[in-house]
Amino acid sequence: MHNPFSLFAAPSPPAKVAPPVPNEIATLGHGRDLTRAFIGPDQRLDPQDAILQSRTYQGLGGYDLFRDLLTDWTVFSALQQRRLALVSAETEVIPGGERRADKNAAAFLEETLQHIGWDQVSAGMHYGIYYGFGVGECLWDHDGATVTLDQVRIRDRRRFAFDGDQRLRLMTMANPQPGELLPDRKFWVFQTGADHDDEPYGMGLAHWLYWPVLFKRAGIKFWLIAAEKFGAPTAAGWFPPGTKKEDQDLLLAALAAIQTDAAIIMPDGMRAELLEAKRATGGDHAALCGHMDAAIHKIILSQMAPADSTANKLNVSAEEPATWQRLVKADADLICESFNSGPARWLTEWNFPGAALPRVYRRTEPPKDVAQRSEIERRLFDLGYRPTLKQIEEEYDGEWEVVPMAVTATLQSTGPGTLTPGEQIAPGIQADGTPTPPAAFAAPPDPAPDPTAPLVERLGQEAEPLINALLDPVRAALESSADLMDFRARLLTLYPDLDGKAFADLMGQALAAADAMGRWEARP
Fold first, then answer.
1. CA dihedral in degrees (179, 185, 190, 196; nearest 10)?
2. What is the rounded end-to-end Cα distance, in angstroms, of the chain?
3. How far apart are CA 197 and CA 168, in angstroms?
4. Lowest-confidence range among 23-32, 189-198, 283-292, 434-443?
């Protein structure tokens, strides 16, 4: 039964909230990961890629298997398109703030990118998207004042492994298992493609390319056999019963000579014919290879594209340009963000302590249509608007200013009073020495005098006190209300006291003025 006096009881104390747990719990080492065998922090962690695990050979972690896939011409072509699209995008370095130190850090990073050959470095690290992870070694130097990045060497990922604590290790002849533990802030590493963070090796495109390439190679093998079968008929010979072994060998040699010689001879009583192979049931090898090529394009380019497509000079479908742009942007963002959180951060913290971190960014967006933009601005000008100088500089790049003209000598030679206002002393120069503004940015002509303008101005003057008389109680109610619900309740109480008769009379006069203005503008 409900206690009616429970409302007067003391409130119960709030439940105790558990504090946050900062330590990592679901680690990989010490048998914490039941999907792997027991892995200690100093033991090598093997990749979980099923293809690498089942088809590892030569003791190199299976990445030779993925490297072999690059010999397929379709794989190489599609990957090259993604890689070249990445490096062809212009790179920008954006300061992390507006302070001098922030801008100095960005300028220093921009010089560093030019020094190390950023496009070539990006092209090398782009193979990490194919394999699943990439490794670049930073060669640091010191010029006496700052720590500099002299080179970024892209290393062979087959030489590296991760341990139970997901630390990068270098496998050497002296220490192949688990490998040498590498120092911090020395190697730039990024992973991609895995569906969880417990796989430091990532999951590259090669994982999905393995079977299409394997099926394609098997199909080409049988295709070549079929081409030989159907292209060159088999020679068959008949000999009568009781033919000697020497004569049989002579017939076989004659049949073999059919393939190369223009004429042959055979013993009497023997005959030779060319058997034409008849096509039986079975798959079309060309169609199979075509399907596998389409699958490879789908995996790498994220769309089905014919081999002879020329949209944007790339092997992508013209119907899906947005897909291609998103793909290139994703590659650029992945590599740039990993560099920003790695070498770019390290350089900034070493050389510019306290400065906001700059950001390396690639402009993968398609170029703006300047002609279309200028046409839009011309139409806006016809409506009475024109862009500011700041907007022009942002939209059309660079810095803009009024073109300086030396007009003093021209004015002195022509003499005062020889030019009328608006007349030009030279193409693009007005009589007062200023440049003639372009048509799209010129001031609009003065309109014809409007006889109803004084009436409109008088209506505005008479309406101002009436509007204030109506709105003053509303403003007072808004200021004194605790919230919007309270304000709504106050409006309902104010409504009966609001007198709009005088304002309605004024609106009748305004409508009469508008009617007169319309008749004036519509006059013949």
1. 80
2. 88
3. 15
4. 434-443
Closest residue by Cα to residue 463 from 404, 418, 511, 424? 511
Q: pLDDT tens for residues 354-390?
A: 999 999 999 987 766 666 677 777 777 777 777 777 7
Are 196 and 124 within 8 A, CB to CB? no
Chain centre distance of CA 258: 61
* Distance separating alpha carbons of residues 162 and 177, to the nearest angstrom: 11
Sign of CA dihedral 342, 343, 346, 352: negative
Tokens 């997901």 correspond to: 166
Question: What is the residue extent of each domain of the chain?
Answer: 44-207+328-363, 234-275, 368-402, 457-521
pLDDT tens per residue, range 386-431: 777 777 776 666 666 665 554 444 444 554 444 444 444 444 455 5
Pairing relation of β-strands 234-238 and 147-154? unpaired
Cβ neighbors of 40 (< 8 A, separation 6 or more) are 29, 30, 164
